[in-house]
Each structure stands twice: as C-alpha cells, then as structure tokens.
Amino acid sequence: MNNDLLFDFNVDKAAKTVFITREFNAGQSLVWDAFTKAELLDQWGAPAPMRAKTKYMNFEVGGRRFYAMISPDGQERWAVQEFTSITPKTNFKMYNAFADKDENRELPGSDWDYNFSEQNGVTKVDITIFNESFERMEKLLEGFKIGFTMTLKNLEELLSTLS
C-alpha cells in the first residue's frame, strides 16, 4: 500500500478556476466507477456528518445526476450535474449547478473536467473546476476545500473496502 499519495488543491482566482489533483491506492477502473456510479457516489460524496442521496443518474452525454447532500437534521441541498463529454475510464466533463428540490437551477454554475490515469496501481484524478462567475467561485470556496477534502478521504476509505 502506498501511503505517500498526492493531494494538491490550487486556486487561480484570475482564471476563476480550481485545480485539484488526488491519487488513490486503487485501480483506475474502480476509481472511475466510484466517480460515475450513483450507488458508489452516495457512499462517499458528502462530507460527514452529511450524506449524499442521488434521486436519479443517467451517466451518458446529455444525461444528468440530480442529487442532494442531506444534513443530520434533514436539510437538503440539491444540485444538478449534466454530463457534457465522456471518454470511458479516462475523462468526463459536466456542468454543475445548485438547484431547488424541483430541479430549478441556481445560476451561475461551474464546469468540471475529470481526468483519470493509473501508474503502478495508483490512480491519479485531475479535476479542473471553471466557475462562470468570480462571485460564484468565492462563494464556492467558503468551506469547499475542507468539505471536498473530507469527501475524498471518504472515497479513499471506500476504495480500500472495495479493492
């Protein structure tokens, strides 16, 4: 087991872009599944004590995932993810926007670009998040790094049980 895995989180405010690189001690196919299958996403996709719940997911170009992060007191924060490009096992892109429970989007949103690669049993995921507005990025960054870091730790733990 490799305990020296890369985690890098950088913000380019001028470009309204967040760059995240994270390595996982698991094969690329399993990591890909964890990012693209609702039943796996719901197991790691929210920072504790919140939990993720996917209402539906159609992972294909033009398809959507509609899901919520649910707090312990039952408050739901919904989001819509629309898949804009998929190259199986190596890349997918999506447009992400917060929404209400009826799927009405709160604009502006952000474009997410995921790239997957594997070397010696370690899978690297590069994530680029471009925000449509500087204000949205500033709002996103409030707690985002902490929360996203927690969810990636959840994923690392899930992958260790699935490997």
UniProtKB/TrEMBL annotation:
Transmembrane segments: none annotated. Gene3D superfamilies: 3.30.530.20. Residues 28-159 form the Activator of Hsp90 ATPase homologue 1/2-like C-terminal domain. Signal peptide: none annotated. It holds the Pfam family AHSA1. It comes from the Bacteria. Belongs to the AHA1 family. This is SRPBCC domain-containing protein. It comes from Mucilaginibacter ginsenosidivorax.
